Amino acid sequence: MMTKRNILVTGPPGCGKSTLIEKVVNKMKEPLTGFFTREIKDKGRRVGFSINTLDGREGILAHKSIKSEYRVGKYGINIEDIDNIAVPSLIPKGKDEIVVIDEIGKMECFSDLFKKTLIQVLDSPNYVIGSIALKGGSFIQGIKNRDDVKVSCVTPHTRDSLVEKILESIKKGM
Q1: Is 68 exposed, middle or buried (0-12, 13-18, 19+ CB in 10 A)?
Q2: pTM for this one?
Q3: pLDDT (0 to 100) of residue 1
């Protein structure tokens, strides 16, 4: 049986996907690259999302104040920062580097470069740990249906046990 090197978690917004991936990343000793998305808050209200790479770069994924032809709800999508900050962080420098992608979602998928690079990374020998939108168009469904992708659903009950399961499956495969 072939090892599934691409490990993705999914679930409804707010179920703890990012927290879970962060816990996995914090317990790993292997070299890592990739990015997290974070909420941007203003006076306690969410106004957008930032891109935070594991090597310390930061950009804006989406924001209420961004005028863009690409929108999700009230947020304008910043394709430039996806292409110039998120995408380069997905490209591993070596074959033992693990790629962290939080998240493969509607906003990120407006970028053709993101989608193209994501496919290249999933096809690479590198392990990928990431989160993927629960609902999504044909591109997101296609990623979930790949033979080399294992998708786990995050719930309040599975959140903590999944951290160990993901770490174990990477250790086994390496």
Answers
A1: middle
A2: 0.94
A3: 46
